Amino acid sequence: MAGGVSQNGAAGHEPDRTHKVRLGGMALRNGLLVHGPEHWAVAVRARDGSIQVDSGRKPRFRGPLADLPGVRGVARLSEAFALLPLIKRQVPEVRLPFEDGRLLAAMIGTSIVSTGVRRGARTPGREAVLALLGIAPAALALKDSELASYHAVEHKAIAAYEQGTDAAEAAKEHDRCGSNLVAPMLLSTLAGNVLVRSLLRARGPLAGASVALGSVALSVEMFAWSERHPDRPLARAFHRPGYEMQRLFATREPTPEQLEVGRAAIAEILRLELPRTE
User: Fold this and answer.
1) At CA 28, angle to CA 22 and CA 31, rounded to 5?
2) 250 with 172: CB under 8 angstroms?
3) Residue 196 CA to chain centroid, in angstroms?
4) Residue 127 backbone class (left: φ over 0; alpha: ψ -120 to 50; beta: rest)
5) Looking at per-residue confidence, does 261 or 124 come out higher?
6) What is d(CA 92, CA 80) in angstroms, rounded to the nearest whole number?
7) How many CB atoms within 10 Å of residue 198?
8) Which residues, including other chains, have CB under 8 Å from residue 95's CB and lie 6 or more apart?
């Protein structure tokens, strides 16, 4: 793994910027995580005001099974979440999205409310309420916080690379944001719970886990389909709730200092991922 705090590329080598790599990212409470096909890079604002940059190779789940429809989405999400303990261990200064007392309190509160809702009659309305309660902690964590600003940094920095512009000029909303999974996941979770619990009469943790896993797999496939067909009415319908979440509370315009952190993360991931010319 590449270590250190340097924000510069390897001396004597310039990336071939005509070749675009697909980038993803995750907002941190004090910076940005960006990942490409094979590597990850993180840039955070340290307590002394400096920008600390680090990077390494991604954990990958490979093999024919990992590329199957329905499995590939879960595999890619699992890779992203597997990065978190690795990055926290390698860069202790990183503050992860869920490292916040308000978020913990929100999770406990929604858990208590959800328990009460589950005691009611099993109806599609009840399942819809439970699904909405599931995203409430994340919504609270993003509202009016540094995390929302770095969420915008993530979108603007990646869009700037994709569009060949500067991050300050890019929109704070992005079509590939994970918030665009909200509508598919709510719909698939609702349908899955109605099918498994109400019609099949399945109960217990295994039934719940099956619905959750199936919902993630289906939602990621729907997300990928909508990205391939952005002009289809159904694709626009899937994206709209996520876009509105981004516009209203999940992102806010970052400061120049925060954008500087995003540029550092992008520079590091491109140093690792782009082909080099001698």
Assistant:
1) 85
2) no
3) 28
4) alpha
5) 261
6) 18
7) 14
8) 28, 29, 30, 31, 44
Neighbours of 106 (CB within 10 A): 17
How far is 11 from 28, CA to CA, in rounded Å? 29
Domain coordinates of the chain in residue numbers?
Answer: 1-98+255-273, 101-144+173-250
Q: What span, in angstroms and rounded, lies between the C-alpha atoms of 174 and 256?
A: 19
Give every CB contact of residue 157 below 8 A, 6+ residues apart in sequence. Answer: 25, 32, 34, 167, 170, 259, 262, 263, 265, 266
CA 205 to the chain's CA centroid:
26
Q: What is the pLDDT of residues 177-188, one digit of tens each?
A: 888 887 777 777
Q: Which amino acid is at 106?
A: A
Encoding tokens for residue 171? 């929109």
Per-residue pLDDT, 205:
65
The answer to whether 16 and 276 are in contact (CB under 8 A) is: yes
Indicate the SS3 state at residue 56.
strand
The token pair at 138 is 């994340």
Distance set, CA 267 to CA 41, 84, 274 (Å): 9, 20, 10
